[in-house]
Each structure stands twice: as C-alpha cells, then as structure tokens.
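Title: Comparing notes on inverse folding

I've been comparing how different people in this forum approach sequence design from structure. To keep things fair, I'm posting one structure and asking everyone to reply with a full sequence. Here's the target:
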C-alpha cells in the first residue's frame, strides 16, 4: 500500500482543491453491480436490503476498500423506486421489482411534462410542482404511500451514513437534494425530441422555467449544505454537450445557468460536482471560465479525459474514467494498466479522483473491480 498520511475525506478534498494527496482518492458509484458481481442478481439490490448490504460488505472486504461513495444506500423497494423516480423526474422500472431480476435499471423516457407545465414551474418552482402534481404522473403511489416510502428512505440513509462513517468513507449524501441540472430535467420530462422542439419554437417559455429552477436549485443546495455541513453539490447532465447540441444551444440554455449555479454556490464555499455523461470534448474549454477549484468534472469514458486534463490542469478537478467495457470484459492487468495511466497522466499534480466512467457496470467482474481499487491504493504518483 502506498504510504498513507491522510484520511479518506482529507484525500478527496485535497484532490478537489487541486492539491497533491498522499495517493489518488478512489470513488465508487455502484448500485446493482454489487449484488450481480458477487453471485446474486441485479434485482437483489433493490428487493432485499440484507442481500444488498451483504454484497457491499463482500466487495469492500475483497477489494480492500475505497475513499468515497456516491450511491450505496440500500432501502426498501418502494423507497428505492421513489428516490430514483424523484431523482430522474421520469418513470423508473427496477430489476426485481418491475423487471426480471437480471435486467438493468430502466429509465422510461416519454412525453409526460407538457408545454404548459413550463409556465407552472416558472411560477411555483420544480419542488412544489413535483410534490403536488408531477410525482403522481410518473409513479403509482398514494400520499400515505409517499410518506411511508420517505420514512423508509430516511432509515436506509441513516444506516448507510453509519456504515460508511465507521469505515471512514466520505459520502456526498444525504444532501443530494437537487441532483439533476435544470436543462437535463426538462429534457427527460419532455423527452429528447419534444424538448429540442421547445428550444427552437418556444425558447422564452423554456427560459422562464430554467431561470426559476436554477434559482431554486441554488437555494436548495445552500440550505442543504448548511444543514449537513457538506460543501459539495451534485448535478447530473448528459445532453447539453456537443455530442447532442450545437454551441448556440449550449451557450444559450446551459452555460449561463451553470455559471450562475457555480458562482452562487462558490460564494458560499460549495463546490459543484458535475456528472457529465456522453462526449463533452467540444465543451471542455468553457469550464476554464469557472473560478479555480469551484467544480469537479466527472467524466464517463467518452470524453477525452487526457485532453481535458491538458485544458484544465491546475484549474478544476477531474473524476473518472475507467470505462465500463474495460471493467466488464477486460482483464485485471488491463484495468491496472489503464488506472496507472490515469494516475500518471491525470493525477500526479493533484486534481484527480479515480473512479469508473459513470456507474460501475453490472457486468463488472470482481477481479476487475479489485484491480481498479488496489491500483489506486498502491500505485504511487509518477515522479516525472
């Protein structure tokens, strides 16, 4: 093991602050991969808290443990479905609950958010719109069932905080209060096609709602941060980048609101964590405009993380990006070699957190999972 002189939390924050930690911090984002990889089914994670925790414990012991956890919160089936549905803002189908045990989690994208809903959201905000109306469009649940599911989720989160806390693992919950970027939220709720039409044919309507939800997101994160003393705000986004939209769309509907979010949170000492799926190669230069150290860019293996490092070296922390394909069908020595390359080329001067590209795939092998973690724990930073 590389010489360790920091706690996991100190190690993660050193990377975020663009300082050089004692070794590269390791983050795990995984749900159904735990139970599938250890001999169960994907559905076991959602249908049985006991099986989920047994699988997590097994992977922890087998790999040697990691520094940061983003999503390992087993809960009851209804609580899990509620949280994922509210997180994504669309219908969700869970393995072992709605789907066969070995299916992957499914997001069912269809046009549920209607054009007139933009006006309602602009007036009352997303949180009220969700709780009073929209949730009951996308989930079959009664008000009493909602209360019970929320209570079960609180119980699951409390246990997760205790388990990970005793292991010294740094977590980003329970303050993950508004985890979808406003642009992405509308794209999911309207569906990709309809939302794209809205951007071109109803721009003012979209912008009024974006402005309201942006202000609301800022307020929610600041309040959550004060309540939890967690100085990280998580935002998922996969559609605003150049893979889907031209620069004119990005510059009008995503970047100004993103800068507003980052600047407002940074003024409170809160770092914005952007989970960026799909290819953002064309957009990476924009992030140089953000204040130094104000954000983390978590990349999924489709964005060129090495080019991003050259562009943002000494400016923002990067996270990723061991590809799901490599973790699933590669060999442990291949995973080890790629992790060493990441540590050598992206991590040696700080500003890097080692993780999978997006979520750990359910097809990951135990040996490859261990190879990633053990390389992070034992491989020393390059001397070059």
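Reply #1:
Here's my take.
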């Amino acid at each position: 093991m590389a010489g360790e002189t920091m706690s996991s939390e100190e190690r993660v924050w050193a990377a975020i602050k663009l300082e050089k930690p004692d070794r590269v911090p390791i983050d795990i984002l995984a749900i159904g991969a735990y139970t599938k990889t250890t001999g169960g089914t994907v559905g076991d994670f959602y249908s049985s808290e006991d099986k989920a925790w047994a699988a997590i414990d097994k992977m922890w012991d087998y790999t040697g443990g990691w520094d940061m956890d983003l999503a390992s919160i087993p809960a009851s089936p209804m609580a899990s479905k509620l949280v994922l549905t509210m997180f994504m803002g669309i219908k969700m189908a869970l393995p072992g609950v709605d789907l066969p045990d070995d299916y992957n989690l499914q997001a069912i994208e269809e046009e549920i958010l209607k054009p007139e809903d933009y006006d309602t959201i602009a007036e009352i905000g997303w949180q009220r719109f969700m709780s009073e109306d929209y949730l009951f469009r996308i989930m079959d649940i009664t008000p009493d069932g909602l209360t019970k599911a929320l209570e079960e989720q609180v119980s699951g989160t409390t246990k997760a905080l205790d388990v990970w806390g005793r292991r010294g693992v740094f977590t980003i919950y329970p303050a993950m209060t508004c985890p979808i970027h406003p642009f992405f939220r509308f794209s999911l709720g309207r569906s990709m096609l309809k939302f794209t039409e809205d951007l071109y044919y109803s721009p003012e309507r979209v912008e009024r709602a974006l402005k309201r939800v942006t202000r609301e997101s800022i307020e929610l994160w600041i309040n959550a941060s004060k309540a939890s003393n967690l100085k990280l705000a998580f935002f998922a986004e996969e559609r605003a980048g150049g893979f889907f939209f031209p620069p004119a769309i990005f510059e009008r509907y995503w970047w100004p609101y993103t800068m507003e979010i980052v600047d407002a949170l940074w003024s409170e000492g809160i770092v914005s964590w952007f989970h960026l799926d799909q290819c953002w190669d064309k957009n990476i230069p924009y992030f140089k405009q953000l204040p130094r150290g104000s954000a983390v860019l978590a990349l999924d293996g489709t964005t060129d993380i090495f080019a991003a490092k050259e562009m943002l070296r000494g400016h923002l922390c990067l996270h990723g990006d061991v590809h799901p394909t490599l973790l699933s069908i590669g060999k442990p020595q291949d995973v080890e070699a790629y992790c060493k390359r990441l540590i050598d080329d992206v991590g040696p001067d700080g500003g890097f957190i080692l993780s999978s590209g997006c979520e750990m795939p359910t097809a990951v092998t135990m040996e490859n999972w261990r190879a990633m973690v053990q390389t992070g724990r034992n491989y020393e930073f390059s001397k070059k």
